[in-house]
Design goal:
heterotetramer, A alpha+beta, B mainly alpha, C mainly alpha, D mainly alpha, B: mainly alpha, Four Helix Bundle (Hemerythrin (Met), subunit A), globular, disordered N terminus, D: mainly alpha, Helix Hairpins, 4 helices, elongated
Chain lengths: 394, 191, 432, 122
C-alpha cells in the first residue's frame, strides 16, 4: 500500500492530527487519491507463465504498469559461451518452447551464414514446411489461451485438438513434440519419413474447415467484439519506436514481414500475402493471426508439392569452427523478429551469442497499450501480445 | 383465512380479529421483531446490526400478512429488505468502517438518552391503556384476494376517474427522483 | 384415513393446498418440490458437465459409474467429507449464515411457482411480487458472504456480483410488469399478480404471452431471459467468479459442504428463475395448442408424451448398456446401467398405462392423475429447455467486462423494458 | 393443528385451546409498534456510529408503518396501507440521501462518529 493511504488507515480516526488541516482548505489528497498498487502474478492464471505485473490502479482504471521479469532466467546466452555450436543447438528450443522449430531454424541459419555455407534446396524446403507448421501450432496455442482469458472456454479445446495433429507430424519426423531439435547446422538431420508428404497433405485438408470453426465461434461473436475492439490500441509509429515486431506490428498497419523483406530459407520461391490490420487493437491482432494461419497453409501446400530431391545435409565439417567475425541474422518467428547475433573468435565455441527474442521486445508495449484501460483488459492485452516467458527471460 | 372456501366464516367470528393462521404466529413474529430490534441497536458490528434489521423487516412483513396487507408485505420485502438493506450493506463494506467497532459504541450521555426513551415508552403505554375503550372491537372484513386491485384503484383511480392518491403518488416519484440526484451528486468524486 | 388427508384428495377440490388451508398437503407439496428440485439439481450437475464436455470435443466424466452417472453423487460425498475451513478472524456467525440466506432465497420462490392449476404450494394473490422480493434477498447472501470471508478479493467479488444482480433486477422487474399488463387485457380489465392467475389468463386469451402482440411479448421475454442469466451470475455475466481476474469471487474462502450450499443455491435459483419465465411467457403448464386442438383425441395424444419421453430415455440407456465393453471389470457398470434402463422403462410403462386409463372423461382418480402428470411434464419440459440454454451460453460466450455489463444493464435493458411496457400498454388499450 | 378453518359455519366448541387465548386486537399491534419505535429512539440517541443511527431511523419508520397497517385493518379500509407504501418510498429516499452524505463525509474525514462531526464546514 502506498505509504500515505496505509498509515492513514491504521491510525485510529479519533486522533487524526488536524495539523495539516488549516480550516480553510480541505486536504485534497484524501479526496481523489485512492491509488492502489496491486501485484498481478507471478503465479497468476492469466499471465502465461511467470510474469509479474505491478499495476497502479485508480479504482478499476489502470494508471501504469511495470513488468517484473526474470523468474525464468536460465542464463542461456552465458551457457552458449562454453558450448560448441552443435552442442548449443538443443538449448535454442527451450527459449520459445511454443515455437521450438523456428528457434532452431534461426540459430542454424545464423551459423551457416557465419560460415557462409548454404543448406541444400531439399533441406530448405523441409525447413520451411516444419517452420510454417510450427507457426500454425503457435498461433493455435495463442488463440486457445487468449480466448480462455477473455472467458470463452470452447476454443481452447478445438485449438488443442487440431494442434495435436501437427505435433504428431513433428514426433514422426524428429521424435519430439515440443523441443524438437529438428535442424542441424548445414541442413536437416533426418530424411523425411515415408508418409511425410501424405501426412502434411492430410493435415492441410483436415485443418482447412477447422480454422473456419474458430472463426465461426469468435469473429462475429458479439461479446468477443465488445471485449477486443479498441482494446490495447497501439499505433504503427509507436510499434516502430518500441521495436515491436510480428503480428503486433502488422496489426497496426505496418507491412513488415521478414519472410518477404529479407527472404531466408526457401521463402522467396513461394507466393503468399502478408495480412495487416488497420487500427492496431486486439481484434485486428486476432484477425492478422487468423489470416497468417491461412497463409501458412498456402506456403506449406506449395512447399510440399514442390519439394525437390537431393541431399539434405550441406558440406559442413565434422567440427564446426566458423571464421573470426560476427553476424546478425533474424527470421520471422510466430511472435515476431527472432534475431541471433553471434561473435566468433575462430574457436569451436562462440565468443558471444546474443538472442533478440520477439516476446521480450513486444512486452515493452504492454504499458503503452494498457494505460487507461481496466484490469480485465490487462489480461486481454497480455494475451494478445502473445508472450512466452521462456523467451522473455532466456 | 381462506375467503374462497368459506366466505361465511367471517361473520361467525364476531369478537376480535381472525388473523391469518393461528394467534401464536403473532406472538412469534412480534417477539422476533422486538428481539432483533434490540439487536440492531446493541450490536457493536455494523453488519450484524444490518442483519438484525433485516430479520426485523421480515418479521414486520409477516405481521402485515396477518393484517390482510399482502401488497404492503410484498413492497416491504422488495423495497426494504431487498433494496435499502443492500444499500446499507454496500455502504458498510465500501467504507469498511468495521474498524471503528473497536471504539466506544455508545456516546457518553447514553443514560440521558435511555431516560428520555423510557419516558416516551411510559407515555405510549399510558395512551394505549387509557384509550383501550376507544378502539371498536368489531373488525370489518377485508377481502384478502382483491387487496392489490383495491390499492391500485385507490392509487390510480379506475375507468377514467382519478384515484384519491394519484396526485400524491406522482409527487412521491418526484421525491425519489430528487433523492437519486442528491445521492449521486454527493458521492461522485468528479461530476 | 383422517379427514384432513382425504378432504383434499376428492376431485372436486381444484384449489392449491395453501389456499385450501390444508396444511398437511401444503407440507406434502413442499417436500415433493424440495425433493424434485434436489433431483433436478443433481441431474443438472451431470448434464451440465457432459453437455459442456461434448460442446468442447471431450467426453466429460466417464469413470464414476457408467458414463459418469454417479459423478454428482461422488461430488456430493466428496464435498461432505472435505474439511470445512473458516478463514482466520472471519466472522463465524455471518460466515455460517451467508449460504443459508442464499439457499433460503433460492428455495422460497418455489412456494409460488405453479406446476399445475392446483399443483402449487399456495396460490398467493401477490405471487409475482413475492417472487421478486425473495429473489432480491438472494443478493444479501452474496454481499454478506463476501464480507464475512475477511479477505480482499472475495469482498470485491461480492460487491461486483451484488451490484450486477441489483441492476438486472430492475430490468427483470419491468419485463415482468409488461407481462402482468397483458393479463389485464381481459373483459374485467383487472389483471392478476398470482402466478396461477397469469397462466389462466394466457389460457383464456388463447395465446402464450411470448406471441401476444407479436414483437412486444417476445422483446419482454428476451429481456427477462437475459436479465435472469445475469441474476444468477451465469455464463456471459459470470464476472464474480472470473478466474482470470478475481480468483473465485465471493465464495473463494468457502470449502466443503458450505461451498456446495452456494452451488445448490445457484442451481436452485436458475431453475426458479427459468420456471418464472415459463409461467409468465410460455404458458406455464399448458400443453402446446390447448385451444386449437382440444378434441379428446388430441388430449390423448398429448398425454402420451410423458410416457414416450421416458420410453426413449430407457431405450437410449439400454442401447448404451449393450454397447458397453464386455471386459470383466465393466460387468458391474453394465448391470447398473441395465437396471437404470429397466427403471426408466418401468416409469415409461406406468405413464403410458395412466395415460390410457385416464382417457375416460369422468373425473376418475386416473383422469386426475393423468392431468397432473401432463401439467408437470409440459412445465418441466419447458424449464429443461431453459436449462439447456444456460449450458449453451456457458460453452459459447466469452465473458463481459464489468463496466460493459453495467452499461448493458442500465443503458440498454432498462430503456428497452420501459419502452416495451409503455407500448404494450398503448397497444393493449387500443385493442381491448 | 388444522381444524378451525376447515369446518365452515359449525360453532367452534371443540377448539378448547383457542378459546382461552385472547384473540389478537389492534392494541397488540400498537404495543409492538410502540416497542419498535422506542427501540429506534434509543438507537438514535445513544449510538455513535452514523450507520446505526440511520438504521434506527429505519426502525422508527417501520414502527409507524406497522401502526398504519394495523389501523387500516381496524377500520376496514385501505387508506392506511396506501399511506404505508408512501412511507416506504420516503424511507428509501431518506436512506439513499443519508448514506450519500455518509460516504462523502467518510471520504473527507475518515471517521463516521457522530461526535466527530462537529464542523459546520468541512
Amino acid at each position: 500500500m502506498s505509504d500515505r493511504t496505509s498509515d492513514a488507515l491504521n491510525r485510529a480516526p479519533s486522533d487524526v492530527d488536524r495539523s495539516n488541516l488549516d480550516l480553510g482548505t480541505p486536504d485534497k489528497t484524501y479526496l481523489d487519491s485512492n491509488e492502489l498498487i496491486i501485484n498481478m502474478g507471478p503465479q497468476h492464471p492469466a499471465t502465461h507463465g511467470v510474469l509479474r505485473v505491478i499495476l497502479k490502479l485508480d479504482g478499476e482504471k489502470v494508471l501504469g504498469t511495470e513488468c517484473v521479469i526474470g523468474y525464468l532466467h536460465r542464463g542461456v546466452e552465458k551457457i552458449a559461451e562454453n558450448r560448441t555450436y552443435t552442442m548449443f543447438n538443443p538449448y535454442v528450443d527451450r527459449m520459445d518452447y511454443c515455437a521450438a522449430v523456428s528457434n532452431g531454424l534461426g540459430y542454424c541459419e545464423a551459423v551457416e551464414k557465419l560460415m557462409n555455407v548454404e543448406a541444400p534446396a531439399r533441406a530448405q524446403y523441409i525447413r520451411v514446411i516444419l517452420t510454417e507448421l510450427q507457426r500454425i501450432a503457435s498461433h493455435q496455442l495463442w488463440l486457445g489461451t487468449h480466448a480462455l482469458d477473455i472467458g470463452a472456454m470452447t476454443p481452447l479445446f478445438y485449438t488443442f485438438r487440431d494442434r495435436e495433429e501437427i505435433l504428431k507430424i513433428f514426433e514422426r519426423y524428429c521424435g519430439a513434440r515440443l523441443t524438437t531439435h529438428a535442424f542441424r547446422i548445414g541442413g536437416c538431420q533426418y530424411e523425411t519419413y515415408a508418409g511425410f508428404e501424405k501426412d502434411v497433405k492430410n493435415f492441410l485438408a483436415f485443418f482447412a474447415p477447422k480454422i473456419d470453426e474458430y472463426e465461426a465461434l469468435l469473429t462475429t461473436n458479439r461479446i468477443w467484439l465488445e471485449r477486443t475492439k479498441n482494446v490495447g490500441v497501439i499505433s504503427g509509429a509507436d510499434c516502430i519506436a518500441l521495436g515491436v515486431t510480428g503480428p503486433l506490428l502488422r496489426a497496426s498497419g505496418v507491412k513488415w514481414d521478414l519472410r518477404k523483406a529479407q527472404p531466408y530459407a526457401a521463402y522467396s520461391e513461394f507466393d503468399f500475402e502478408i495480412p495487416t490490420g488497420v487500427n492496431g487493437d486486439t481484434y485486428d491482432r486476432y484477425m492478422v493471426r487468423m489470416k497468417e494461419m491461412r497463409q501458412s497453409m498456402r506456403i506449406i501446400e506449395q512447399a510440399v508439392s514442390g519439394i525437390p530431391e537431393g541431399p539434405i545435409m550441406g558440406k559442413v565439417p565434422k567440427v564446426i569452427k566458423p571464421p573470426v567475425g560476427e553476424i546478425y541474422h533474424s527470421i520471422e518467428a510466430p511472435k515476431g523478429e527472432l534475431g541471433y547475433f553471434i561473435v566468433s573468435d575462430g574457436s569451436t565455441q562462440p565468443y558471444r551469442l546474443r538472442v533478440r527474442p520477439p516476446s521480450f521486445v513486444n512486452l515493452q508495449a504492454l504499458d503503452l497499450m494498457v494505460r487507461g484501460l481496466l484490469v480485465a483488459d490487462v489480461i486481454a492485452v497480455i494475451g494478445t501480445i502473445d508472450i512466452v516467458l521462456g523467451e522473455v527471460d532466456r | 383465512m381462506n375467503p374462497g372456501m368459506s366466505a361465511g366464516l367471517n361473520s361467525a367470528i364476531d369478537a376480535g380479529m381472525a388473523p391469518v393462521g393461528t394467534p401464536w404466529f403473532f406472538y412469534v413474529l412480534a417477539g422476533l421483531a422486538v428481539a432483533s430490534g434490540v439487536a440492531v441497536i446493541t450490536r457493536r458490528n455494523a453488519v450484524h446490526s444490518a442483519l438484525a434489521l433485516i430479520v426485523t423487516l421480515l418479521a414486520v412483513a409477516g405481521l402485515y400478512l396477518m393484517l390482510y396487507a399482502p401488497f404492503v408485505a410484498g413492497v416491504q420485502i422488495i423495497v426494504y429488505a431487498g433494496g435499502i438493506m443492500v444499500l446499507f450493506l454496500f455502504v458498510i463494506m465500501l467504507v469498511n468502517i468495521d474498524r471503528s467497532s473497536k471504539e466506544r459504541q455508545f456516546n457518553r450521555i447514553w443514560p440521558v438518552g435511555l431516560l428520555a426513551a423510557c419516558a416516551l415508552l411510559a407515555l405510549f403505554v399510558s395512551a394505549i391503556a387509557k384509550g383501550k375503550a376507544l378502539f371498536p372491537d368489531r373488525m370489518m372484513t377485508l377481502p384478502e384476494s382483491s387487496n392489490t386491485q383495491q390499492i391500485a384503484t385507490m392509487l390510480y383511480g379506475e375507468a377514467g376517474k382519478m384515484g384519491q392518491y394519484t396526485f400524491a403518488f406522482e409527487i412521491a416519484s418526484l421525491l425519489l427522483l430528487v433523492a437519486i440526484l442528491g445521492a449521486v451528486i454527493m458521492t461522485k468524486k468528479k461530476i | 384415513m383422517p379427514n384432513f388427508i382425504m378432504s383434499y384428495l376428492d376431485p372436486k377440490v381444484t384449489v392449491t393446498p395453501g389456499s385450501a388451508g390444508n396444511q398437511f398437503w401444503a407440507l406434502m407439496y413442499v417436500l415433493i418440490i424440495f425433493a424434485g428440485v434436489s433431483v433436478a439439481v443433481i441431474c443438472m450437475n451431470w448434464i451440465e458437465r457432459k453437455a459442456l464436455a461434448h460442446f468442447q470435443v471431450r467426453l466429460g466424466p466417464m469413470r464414476v459409474g457408467p458414463h459418469g452417472l454417479l459423478q454428482p453423487i461422488a461430488d456430493a460425498v466428496k464435498l461432505m467429507i472435505k474439511e470445512d475451513i473458516i478463514p482466520a478472524e472471519a466472522d463465524q456467525f455471518v460466515f455460517w449464515i451467508a449460504p443459508m440466506i442464499g439457499l433460503l432465497a433460492a428455495f422460497t420462490v418455489y412456494t409460488v411457482i405453479p406446476f399445475g392449476p392446483s399443483e402449487a404450494v399456495s396460490d398467493m394473490n401477490i405471487g409475482i411480487l413475492f417472487m421478486l422480493g425473495v429473489s432480491s434477498l438472494g443478493v444479501l447472501g452474496i454481499v454478506v458472504s463476501g464480507w464475512a470471508s475477511n479477505s480482499h478479493y472475495p469482498l470485491i467479488g461480492a460487491l461486483r456480483s451484488s451490484a450486477q444482480m441489483v441492476s438486472y433486477e430492475v430490468a427483470m422487474g419491468l419485463a415482468v410488469v409488461s407481462a402482468i399488463l397483458m393479463t389485464s387485457l381481459n373483459a374485467s380489465g383487472t389483471g392478476t399478480l398470482s402466478m396461477i392467475g397469469i397462466v389462466q389468463a394466457q389460457q383464456q386469451q388463447g395465446v402464450w404471452f411470448i406471441f401476444k402482440f407479436f414483437p412486444l411479448g417476445f422483446i419482454a421475454f428476451v429481456i427477462f431471459a437475459i436479465a435472469m442469466v445475469a441474476e444468477t451470475n451465469r455464463a456471459p455475466f459470470d464476472l464474480a467468479e472470473a478466474e482470470s481476474e478475481l480468483t473465485a469471487g465471493y465464495h473463494t474462502e468457502y470449502s466443503g459442504l458450505r461451498w456446495s450450499l452456494f452451488m445448490l443455491a445457484e442451481y436452485a435459483a436458475m431453475i426458479a428463475v427459468s420456471s418464472i419465465a415459463v409461467t409468465l411467457w410460455l404458458g406455464g403448464w399448458m400443453r402446446p395448442f390447448p385451444n386449437l386442438l382440444h378434441a379428446p383425441a388430441w388430449d390423448f395424444i398429448f398425454s402420451l408424451f410423458p410416457g414416450l419421453t421416458f420410453g426413449a430415455l430407457a431405450a437410449i440407456t439400454f442401447i448404451e448398456a449393450a454397447r458397453m465393453p464386455t471386459q470383466s471389470f465393466f460387468k458391474i457398470q453394465r448391470i447398473g446401467l441395465a437396471v437404470f434402463a429397466a427403471l426408466l422403462g418401468f416409469i415409461a410403462l406406468l405413464l403410458l398405462v395412466i395415460a390410457v386409463a385416464g382417457r375416460s372423461a369422468d373425473m376418475s382418480v386416473a383422469a386426475r392423475f393423468r392431468e397432473g402428470i401432463d401439467y408437470v411434464y409440459w412445465f418441466v419440459l419447458k424449464v429443461a429447455g431453459f436449462m439447456y440454454l444456460f449450458i449453451w451460453y456457458r460453452a459459447t460466450w466469452p465473458r463481459y467486462r464489468f463496466d460493459q455489463l453495467m452499461k448493458i444493464g442500465w443503458k440498454v435493458m432498462l430503456p428497452i423494458s420501459l419502452g416495451v411496457l409503455v407500448v404494450t400498454a398503448i397497444v393493449g388499450v387500443i385493442f381491448s | 393443528m388444522e381444524g378451525r378453518a376447515g369446518t365452515p359455519g359449525a360453532p367452534r366448541t371443540e377448539n378448547r385451546a383457542l378459546r382461552t387465548m385472547v384473540p389478537i386486537t389492534t392494541l397488540h399491534y400498537l404495543v409492538v409498534a410502540a416497542a419498535l419505535f422506542v427501540l429506534g429512539v434509543i438507537g438514535v440517541l445513544t449510538r455513535r456510529n452514523v450507520v446505526i443511527v440511520l438504521m434506527s431511523i429505519e426502525l422508527i419508520l417501520n414502527a409507524v408503518n406497522l401502526n398504519l397497517v394495523a389501523f387500516s385493518r381496524m377500520w376496514g379500509n385501505l387508506h392506511g396501507q396506501v399511506f404505508a407504501i408512501f412511507i416506504t418510498v420516503d424511507a428509501a429516499a431518506e436512506a439513499a440521501v443519508g448514506l450519500g452524505i455518509l460516504i462523502s463525509f467518510f471520504r473527507n474525514k475518515e471517521t463516521i462518529n457522530v461526535d466527530e462531526i462537529d464542523l459546520l464546514k468541512w
